[in-house]
Amino acid sequence: MLVLHYTGMPTAAAALDRLCDPTARVSAHYVVEENGIIWRLVPETQRAFHAGSSCWENESDLNAVSLGIEIVNPGHEWGYRPFPAEQMSALQELCRDILCRNLIPPHRILGHSDIAPDRKSDPGELFDWRHLARAGIGIWPQPPPGVARSRGKGVGVVARAAALADLAAIGYCVGAAKDAVVVAAFQRRFRPERWDGRLDAETVQRLHEVRAAYDRARRP
Ligand SMILES: [Zn+2]
């Protein structure tokens, strides 16, 4: 599994200090700075402490089976801002490199908020998953063009049940957190224009599309 984070600290130096402080008990395999500089902090063969309490595909203890990349960004607490192009291309190179060495299927390339939606919102709605997916890293299906969908208004009980089933089929641990929190994590990643946690018609449709893409990726 490959898990992407943002550092969520005021500066890159502060984040590196913390990640290298043994008493902090947090670490990651790599850090990618905004100017594209990459730091390797933990060898890929060793476990890092980046995922925390988390769950995906009903599996927990994800630090044991994952590599973690911290992408420098102040995050929602310190002035969340877009990820610069230099940083995204360095990250893309790093991911490609990691995927050459490790057998990580696309449905196990995730954001921290995907695996810990009740605690985490990184790398967040400004992170360009589409950019990575175009380079063959992770899954981000392009929505079909020209389809008008209603945003904001909730859907009925049947559509809601189907939507929650889609969320679980994608890999989200529904039931481990409030539904709205898991829906918001999905939206941040796959419908980042609005992440209010509401199952509106647009989100329900997007869930169907994303589930189909994950199903295709999992087929042998
Ligand atoms: Zn994180």
Uncertain parts = none
State the end-to-end distance.
Answer: 18 Å
Radius of gyration: 17 Å
Q: What count of helical segments does DSSP give?
A: 8
Helix content: 25-40%
Structure description:
Helix 6 runs parallel beside helix 8 (201-218) and helix 7 (179-190) crosses helix 8. This protein has helices at residues 12-19, 75-78, 85-101, 112-115, 129-134, 157-170, 179-190, 201-218, and strands at residues 2-6, 30-32, 38-40, 67-71, 109-111. Strand 2 (30-32) and strand 3 (38-40) form a beta hairpin. The longest helix is centred in the C-terminal third of the chain and has 18 residues, at 201-218. It is an alpha/beta fold. A 5-stranded mixed sheet has the order 3-2-4-1-5. It is built from 8 helices and 5 strands. 38% of the residues lie in helices and 9% in strands. It binds zinc ion. Zinc ion (ZN) binds next to loops.
